[in-house]
């Protein structure tokens, strides 16, 4: 499986944007970039995914580098509820499983 | 929220006893998964199912078995629990094998 590298932790202030980087230099052409997050004492939840183009949804935006070797998850206005572990996952177009790494622990200060 | 429940939510058992965890869904999704989460390892896939009576192994399947006799239920059994199986177990569902996975609330299992 292609690997991802994320910072261990990041801090943000409430209502400020948060930019979460992910490096995936060995990504293959058919790998999708998925982001999940896990709130304390809960199961993971889907955030967003993309292949080549930038993506937006109600939760976040995903910016993908032109060479696809890195990507950034953007939370536009962090709230206390966004404090979680965020996982960047590469998933092939035919992959059934998700391979979770250690993720980035995001702390939001009030 | 996807309709996924897990039972029990917490269980303490002794080494050598059998344990069954249940995952129940109301979404009629074809795929169901069991993961375990341990500090330092993230979530790892134990087994998954791609239909009634159709199951396959994941990356950490030793010591676990599964069964799926109905679309809505996926059971994970530890035939003889060991302390190394102390973990938090998550069930997930997806409509197809490559779709978004939706996770249940988890079961915290402690094997003494």
Based on Cα principal axes, name the global outline of chain A. Answer: globular
Q: Strand fraction band of chain B?
A: over 45%
How far is it from the N-terminal to the C-terminal residue of chain A, by CA?
A: 38 Å
Low-confidence spans of chain A:
none
User: Which term fits the overall shape of chain B?
Assistant: globular
Separation of termini of chain B? Answer: 34 Å
Rounded to an integer in angstroms, the radius of gyration calculated over CA atoms of chain A is: 13 Å
Number of helix segments of chain B? 0
Identify low-pLDDT runs of chain B.
none
Strand share of the residues of chain A? over 45%
* Number of helices, counting only DSSP H or I runs of 4 residues or more of chain A: 0
Question: How many beta-strand segments of chain B?
Answer: 11
Q: Pairing-aware structural class of the strands and helices of chain A? A: mainly beta
Largest pleated sheet of chain A: 5 strands, mixed
Side by side, the strands of the main sheet of chain A go 1-9-8-3-4
Derived structural class of chain B? mainly beta
Of all protein chain pairs, which has the greatest interface, and how many residues does each chain bring to it? Answer: A-B, 19 and 22 residues
């Amino acid at each position: 499986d292609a690997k991802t590298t994320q910072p261990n932790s990041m801090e943000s202030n409430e209502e400020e944007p948060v930019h979460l980087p992910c490096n995936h230099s060995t990504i293959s052409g058919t790998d999708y970039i998925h982001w999940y997050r896990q709130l304390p004492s809960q199961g993971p939840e889907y955030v967003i995914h993309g292949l080549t183009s930038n993506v937006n949804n109600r939760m976040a935006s995903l910016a993908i580098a032109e060479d696809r070797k890195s990507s950034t998850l953007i939370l536009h206005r962090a709230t206390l509820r966004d404090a979680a572990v965020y996982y960047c996952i590469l998933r092939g177009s035919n992959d059934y499983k998700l391979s979770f790494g250690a993720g980035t622990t995001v702390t939001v200060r009030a | 929220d996807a309709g996924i429940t897990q039972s029990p939510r917490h269980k303490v058992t002794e080494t050598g006893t059998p344990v069954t965890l249940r995952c129940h869904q109301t979404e009629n999704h074809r795929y169901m998964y069991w993961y375990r989460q341990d500090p330092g390892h993230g979530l790892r896939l134990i087994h998954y199912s791609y239909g009634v009576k159709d199951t396959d192994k994941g990356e950490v399947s030793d010591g676990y078995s599964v069964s799926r006799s109905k679309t809505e239920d996926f059971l994970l059994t530890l035939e003889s629990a060991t302390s190394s199986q102390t973990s938090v177990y998550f069930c997930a569902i997806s409509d197809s094998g490559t779709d978004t996975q939706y996770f249940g609330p988890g079961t915290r299992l402690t094997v003494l």
